[in-house]
Amino acid sequence: MMMTYARDGTLATSSMEPGFVEFYGANFSDLAAQLYVYLGDMGEAQDVVQEAFCRAWVRWGRISRYEEPVGWVRRVAWNLATSRIRRLIIARRYARLERPRTVDGPAPDRVALMAALATLPANQRRAVVLHYLADMSVAQIADMCGAREGAVKTWLYRGRAALASQLRESEEASPHAR
Fold first, then answer.
1. pLDDT band at 15 (very low <50, low <70, confident <90, very high)
2. CB-based contacts of 140, cutoff 8 Å, min separation 6
3. What is the mean pLDDT of residues 110-129?
4. Among 15, 83, 119, 156, which one is least packed by beta carbons within 10 Å?
5. Distance of alpha carbon 149 from alpha carbon 22, whole angstroms
6. Strand partners, 4
7. Residues 120-158: pLDDT tens digits?
8. Which residues contact 80 (CB under 8 A, 6 or more apart)?
């Protein structure tokens, strides 16, 4: 028989503990109905009650000796439901206070640059981005990529040349060209 332990150190077994199935069957519906009235959502109510029973099962060896084990499960379920309500209230408050922000789309120059970068081979694109956007030196890029500095310089040279050509063609094809 496989044995597991709960966080509180009590023993739980992989097979159903004696009496737990009956306890679950006798109490689940009533607890779910109570929590449904509290939460207003049957699915949520069933979820919190199920979670409470899962926590009880792991500790069943101890909880089954309580005078009223259903009281423990009810308390856990209500605590879980209250926590869900608190999170929902906070989320609604945040949503109400948070103003939607509008973000302008990318400028035409940025779109052209992104399109041109997409045409570069991966090594050239990586070298250009790391050198010009991440402000990394040739030595740092070489170290990161596991390449020689000469290779990185070649990637940068070829990448710049290809970008210049692509951007020149893009500017000439644009109806807004000067």
1. low
2. 130
3. 90
4. 15
5. 72
6. 12
7. 999 999 999 999 989 999 999 999 999 999 999 999 999
8. 48, 51, 52
Q: Tokens 């084990």 — which residue?
A: 69
Tell if the pTM clears 0.85, that is, is over it: no
Instruction: Report how far residue 95's alpha carbon sits from residue 151's, in angstroms, rounded to the nearest whole number.
Output: 51
Residue 1 corresponds to which tokens in the numbers above?
């028989």
The total number of residues shown for the chain amounts to 178
Question: Which pLDDT score, from 0 to 100, does residue 176 have?
Answer: 59
Q: Are 39 and 47 in contact (CB under 8 A)?
A: no
Helix (H), strand (E), coil (C) string for 101-118: CCCCCCCHHHHHHHHHHH
The C-alpha atoms of residue 86 and residue 83 are separated, in whole angstroms, by 5
